[in-house]
Amino acid sequence: MIRVKSEEEIALLREPCAIVRDCLNFVGGRICPGMTTEEIDALVHDFICASGAEPSCLGYCGYPASACVSVNEVVVHGIPGDRTLEEGDIVSVDLCAYKNGFHGDGARTFAVGKISAENEKLIRVTEECFFKAVEGLKAGTPLYDIGYKVQTHAEGNGFSVIRSYTGHGIGREMHEDPSVPNFGRKGTGVRLAAGTVLCIEPMIAAGNWRVKVLDDGWTAVTQDGKCAAHYENTLVVREDGVEILTL
Ligand code: MF3
Ligand code: CO
User: Fold this and answer.
1) Which ligand is in closest contact with the Cα of 20?
2) pTM to 2 decimal places
3) Ligand 1 pocket by C-beta < 6 Å: which residues?
4) Can you name the CATH fold of 7-244?
5) Phi, psi of 26 (to 5 degrees)
6) Burial class of residue 62 in the structure, from the number of CB atoms within 10 Å of its CB (0-12 exposed, 13-18 middle, 19+ buried)
7) 95-113 tens-digit pLDDT
């Protein structure tokens, strides 16, 4: 069941979302070769706590960190550890903050130093997929138009769309209905109501979309070992468009 939010609830949601935005910008400015993924996690943890919020990921279904830090072939849910970032890597940072009784959620993929033209394109197209999906999105839009637009743009650029992870509703819970796939048939799915709060999060692979989860139970990698990128924002569906809360 989709829980549509009131203006009062949306007002409470703005602060955790702003913290997510600021934290992503803060971390993005500090990514450099030689850094470990757990150093990124520590930056995220301290930033969120210093903002008076809680890192929603920490302890979520047993997840052991405050951020998901996913390097190269890691698609999502990379558990921070001693992996060191190298020049030419790409690293996705996904984090959630809880404050005022609400969660905000966002992700970005960052370049580590100078990266290949192919990886530049992967990051750019993944971001573009998000903006294509929100273009024209407003109350009454069929849910799966989002995935249709993401998929069309990704595949049109020679990339593929991850199938086994999706965007989602968000609010008092980190994951609420509806599930928001990054693929789909135009004109299908529930028509979104004004006040629906969604996380739209294209996860795009340079090669094949098939993934496997490592023995740690979280880390999702591409089966072909090629890179993947991730871009996510929390937004409110409005009568005449969207209000993006994590930008
Ligand atoms: N932020 C992720 C999402 O977009 C959730 C990560 S799962 C967790 O849904 F266990 F790390 F919290
Ligand atoms: Co999310």
Assistant:
1) 1
2) 0.98
3) 57, 60-61, 63, 68, 77, 94, 96, 105, 199, 201, 232
4) Creatine Amidinohydrolase (3.90.230)
5) -60, -50
6) exposed
7) 999 999 999 999 999 999 9
